């Protein structure tokens, strides 16, 4: 069973909500979260904005092709990410956006704080996505505070670590599963997320599957207004293995599907080693290693 958590109740310390988050974090690695600052209407507008973009001709989308920029901002064509080395590159398309830094900020030359590429169509794209990025980061921070409370990590652990986050907002577009797809082809192949927390909105269509500890897969879906959350590798390091990064995938079906994960990653220099450990795991270095493995345009031949 995947816990379903009321975020306002979690923030207020409600015992059931705290217990639900404890189970989500330490057992299944996934939860559904509702009653957040982002309502169904806002999330639907974001999903439809991405949908309009993905429906554009490839030639227009390629103005923001990340393979041309060398960073991970902009459009990723089908086949541009390979999250499982034993599977083929994913057949999904996606669009990545990160923190918008002021012009002239020296961090703009660092890969994790690279400038965004905003398409000119649909015309509202930049405004809608930038506002959602900011608001979704605030919801993710609320969730993390609830996680700290639920698993007894000191609340200060996360404070300050997300002031200039390497958080990445992605729109995933899964077309209907292609007729040519074989056993090594996925919308997104089996993987764990790299960062701390993923706050995932979807258009409500099925497709996501979460790996069960004993084997097999649990299908999970959420309509706009309700979020799926899961934990990534950095959170597993940070909590010394207490919080679980659970593998998941999308095989894909007969209908197209849009999902919008916010990968809530801390600032580059954050040490995500367990508290009190005598080693250092720099968040930015972990992320760089994982990006270099999985973005096809960054892979070494
Ligand atoms: O589309 C989904 O539901 C999941 C996407 C996902 O796992 C990812 O983008 O990391
Ligand atoms: Fe994922």
UniProtKB/TrEMBL annotation:
Pathway(s) this gene product operates in, as recorded in its UniProt entry: Alkene biosynthesis; ethylene biosynthesis via 2-oxoglutarate
GO molecular function, one term: metal ion binding
GO biological process per UniProt: ethylene biosynthetic process
Obligatory cofactor(s): Fe(2+)
InterPro entries noted in UniProt: DIOX_N, IPNS-like_FE2OG_OXY, IPNS-like_sf, Iron_ascorbate_oxido_reductase, Oxoglu/Fe-dep_dioxygenase_dom
EC number: 1.13.12.19, 1.14.20.7
Span of domain Fe2OG dioxygenase: 163-266
Family recorded in the similarity comment: Belongs to the iron/ascorbate-dependent oxidoreductase family.
UniProt-recorded name of the protein: 2-oxoglutarate-dependent ethylene/succinate-forming enzyme
